[in-house]
Write a structure and sequence with these properties.
This protein has 382 residues and is of the alpha/beta class. The protein has helices spanning 16-30, 45-49, 69-74, 77-82, 95-107, 121-124, 133-145, 154-163, 190-194, 216-226, 244-253, 271-277, 297-304, 335-346, 349-366, 369-381; strands spanning 3-6, 34-40, 56-59, 89-92, 114-118, 149-151, 170-172, 203-207, 234-238, 260-264, 280-283, 309-312, 327-330. Helix content is 41%, strand content 15%. The strands form 2 sheets. A 7-stranded parallel β-sheet has the order 3-2-1-4-5-6-7, with helices on both faces. Strands 10-9-8-11-12-13 form a 6-stranded parallel β-sheet, with helices on both faces. The mean pLDDT is 92.
């Protein structure tokens, strides 16, 4: 089976979906299954594409929102002739572009089946007051016409079925981790040295967009409670977002400037160093309306680097770890429970090592891309 990939997120765009698109393209190519990629046209895209061993066709109008679909469709004759016509399946990363593109080509008489990933927000947003009825109808039509809906977690699977997708059409397809990139630091602290950290106390880490539901502020408040016991404790925040200014103000107000470090948006190629350098990785995210962690891939990346994790019992987060074995689960928005969980791991280095090893074994066994790509292929072939 040859598979064409359609995505609105691909390098030089950064972020989780762009990394997913890159990982999928790489693994499908390695398996001899990728026929080509359809992605947005952006500055420096040509430079990036020349480094790849597979064809990428670019569509214009990325910043035009939903309207980008029309120029994208009109400008992709080369993709349809050279890739889609030779493909057995079209896999859409985003329903809003890839899924809609698959629906459009179907209506043009192209019979290549298409499947769509499901994460959560793209359909949960229609539960908001006064949702777009047109948008909901279009999304449901995409789901109806799709060969399969690939849910990244049991949470997402249950939610998309409740949204109205037939159960038999939904496939559970957890996402994998690039184990060549994310792996333990075998160099006795070289990761910290490369980041300019030569000594100090325990390091807590969160990687992701700075938005309210990620609950960075809860970890900052936890650090305030823990600093007397661990004077050198630091909380590293990697990422940017609309919550950054408020988090910086909170840090200053609580006199925590020596304990909270804002790293901003880091180079994707350096991301593994932050995982390797930390002692505990945290994702205390909650569900905020339709915005939710469909899986919590960063927890798996931390586990691949041999680190214990702490997550909030929300959305698909519990499915990105083995609670009690690879890390600890806490109730959402519970500061006391979070402080206790962090303290329990910091005071017990042996437990941290044990959980880190268990997480690494689990990811290598069940969440490496070689395993996950086989599940995706089975869903497309079924």
């Amino acid at each position: 089976m040859k598979i064409a990939l359609a995505t609105a997120d691909f390098p030089p765009i950064e972020g989780g979906l762009s990394r997913l698109s890159t990982d999928l393209a790489r693994e499908l190519h390695r398996a001899g299954r990728l026929s080509g990629v359809l992605a947005p046209k952006l500055p420096d895209a040509d430079t990036h594409d020349r480094t790849l061993d597979y064809p990428v066709f670019r569509f214009p109008g990325y910043n035009a929102g939903p309207a980008r679909l029309l120029p994208g469709f009109l400008a992709t004759g080369g993709f349809r002739r050279q890739v889609l016509s030779r493909s057995d399946h079209l896999l859409a990363i985003n329903p809003s572009f890839g899924g809609a593109y698959g629906l459009l080509v179907h209506k043009q008489g192209i019979e290549t089946p298409f499947s769509v990933f499901a994460y959560g927000y793209e359909f949960l947003k229609f539960e908001l007051p006064k949702p777009s009825s047109v948008g909901k109808r279009v999304l449901l039509e995409i789901y109806r016409e799709a060969h399969a809906i690939l849910a990244i977690s049991r949470f997402t699977r249950d939610q998309v079925i409740e949204f109205g997708v037939p159960t038999e059409k939904v496939r559970l397809c957890p996402l994998g981790v690039d184990l060549d990139r994310f792996q333990p630091d075998r160099t006795e602290g070289l990761a910290r040295e490369r980041l300019g950290v030569l000594d100090g106390g325990p390091i807590l880490l969160t990687v992701g967009r700075l938005v309210s539901r990620k609950r960075h502020r809860l970890v900052i408040q936890a650090v305030k409670s823990l600093r007397d016991r661990w004077p050198g404790i630091e909380y590293w925040i990697v990422g940017r977002g609309p919550e950054e200014e408020a988090l910086r103000k909170l840090t200053k107000r609580e006199n925590l400037e020596d304990h909270i470090r804002f790293w901003g948006k880091t180079d994707e190629e350096a991301l593994h160093l932050f995982y390797q350098a930390c002692d505990v990785f945290l994702l205390p995210a909650i569900q905020d309306g339709p915005s939710v962690e469909g899986l919590g891939l960063v927890l798996q990346e931390a586990a691949a680097c041999g680190k214990p994790t702490i997550g909030a019992e929300s959305g698909g987060v519990p499915e990105a770890m083995l609670p009690g074995k690879t890390g600890l689960m806490v109730p959402p928005d519970n500061l006391e429970a979070l402080v206790q969980a962090i303290g329990a791991l910091l005071e017990d280095p042996d437990r941290r090592v044990e959980m880190g090893r268990a997480g690494l074994d689990w990811v290598r066994r069940e969440r490496n891309w070689k395993v996950c790509i086989q599940g995706i292929l089975a869903a497309l072939e079924g």
